[in-house]
């Protein structure tokens, strides 16, 4: 943005050209294509704001690091959980295979025994209910 010192006008209540309400104003420069800014010390709370921004950035960085470490912990935990589930699935498959081999080897007599036991229990409960009604 080019400006010359001969440019007149009243900005912000009669202040110099290109004057801002935050204390920045232009100075005439050596060439007409340059603008130099002067900061009024009265409005120079920039150091405090910069310090505040630095502390906020520091806090955000700490939060980001905590989030990163928590994400790593959660990932490790999920990996361990996944390995445990895989081992459990392998154990169940192995036990089912052994059980099937045992059933084939010993025969299916245990099913007959379970059915006979259930019929016996049903008969006992039926007879007990008939006797208790009298």
From TrEMBL:
The chain crosses the membrane at residues 110-128. InterPro entries: T_SNARE_dom. It is a single-pass type IV membrane protein. Residues 1-30 are annotated as: Disordered. The keyword Membrane applies. Keywords: Coiled coil, Endoplasmic reticulum, Golgi apparatus, Membrane, Protein transport, Transmembrane, Transmembrane helix, Transport. One of its GO terms (cellular component) is endoplasmic reticulum membrane. Residues 40-102 form the T-SNARE coiled-coil homology domain. It comes from the Eukaryota. It is found in: Endoplasmic reticulum membrane; Golgi apparatus membrane. GO terms for biological process: protein transport. Belongs to the BET1 family. Required for vesicular transport from the ER to the Golgi complex. Functions as a SNARE associated with ER-derived vesicles. This is t-SNARE coiled-coil homology domain-containing protein.
């Amino acid at each position: 943005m080019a400006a010359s010192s001969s440019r007149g006008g009243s900005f912000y209540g009669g202040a110099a050209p290109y004057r801002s309400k935050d204390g920045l104003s232009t100075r005439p420069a050596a060439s007409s294509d340059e603008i130099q800014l002067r900061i009024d010390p009265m409005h120079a709370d920039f150091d405090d704001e910069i310090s505040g921004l630095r502390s906020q950035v520091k806090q955000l960085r700490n939060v980001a690091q905590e989030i990163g470490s928590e994400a790593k912990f959660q990932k490790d935990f999920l990996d361990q959980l996944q390995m445990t589930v895989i081992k459990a699935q392998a154990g169940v498959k192995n036990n089912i295979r052994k059980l099937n081999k045992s059933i084939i080897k010993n025969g299916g007599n245990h099913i007959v025994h379970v059915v006979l036991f259930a019929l016996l229990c049903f008969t006992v409960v039926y007879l007990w209910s008939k006797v208790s009604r009298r």
